[in-house]
Design brief:
Length: about 90
């Protein structure tokens, strides 16, 4: 069974690195996302080795907490830039 795109699971800026977006993040933000990606990817069950006949691997149990922490870090790091973009969540999560 196909896994839905990460952006459907949780509207999180980190998930946008997994999806096509009409809007582009500023380079500084995009670089930040790219630096987070290896750890994010390693936490996804779909990225884990899967043996034939065995259940599909699950996401790490702390994935939701990890994503929330990274979102808070993102919002704090880029607070000024985000405040200058009216309704930034709508712009970036469209």
């Amino acid at each position: 069974m196909a896994r839905p795109p990460a952006i459907v699971i949780n509207l999180n800026p980190l998930d946008l690195i997994m999806a096509e977006s009409k809007e582009k993040f500023p380079k500084e933000m995009e670089d930040w996302f790219k630096n987070q990606y290896p750890e994010f990817d390693a936490k996804l069950g779909v990225s884990q080795p899967n043996q034939p006949g065995q259940p599909e691997p699950q996401d790490d149990s702390d994935l939701k907490k990890w994503k929330k922490e990274r979102r808070n870090t993102f919002e704090e790091m880029f607070k000024e830039q985000l405040q200058s973009i009216e309704s930034w969540k709508t712009v970036f999560l469209a």
